[in-house]
Amino acid sequence: MELKEIQQLIKFVSSSGVDEVELERKDFKLRIRKNEHKTEIISVPQQVSPASIPVAPAPLPTPVVNAPVEAPKTEQPASSNLIEIKSPMIGTFYRSPSPDKPAFVNVGDEVKIGQVICIVEAMKLFNEIESEVSGRIVKVVANDASPVEYDQVLFLVEPS
Hints:
Layout: H1 3-15, E1 20-24, E2 29-34, E3 39-44, E4 83-86, E5 91-94, E6 110-111, E7 116-122, E8 125-130, E9 135-140, E10 146-148, E11 153-159
Antiparallel strand pairs: 1-2, 2-3, 4-11, 5-7, 5-10, 6-9, 7-8, 9-11
């Protein structure tokens, strides 16, 4: 299963009234469960040969969550028509393709739909994030090389 497909499932669970989605294929099992303050993803590879099945199966690990993690609060400029570009995944936010290269976009730059604006590294994969709107970058909210949460605001854009 491709990362984009998993991201689409996460978006579906987050935006719909569905509380849980489970997908099972021959080589893996994926369950996305939505609780009131968190979305949980559990992926367990399935056993292939009957000889490798344990006698007493161990329970699936359950992530321990002490408190909901909130994205850092940001001050929005007075203009209420700004569009937020949010992170489609959990990972590390990078403004440039490498440390010695310039940033994809800076404050004041015009962006178009489909233009790469940053990278989010997730599980050793560098995912190019494309703009879903056309306009001018008003603010870069996330800090370079810092961790970001799913749906955290990365940029504020004034639509054109």
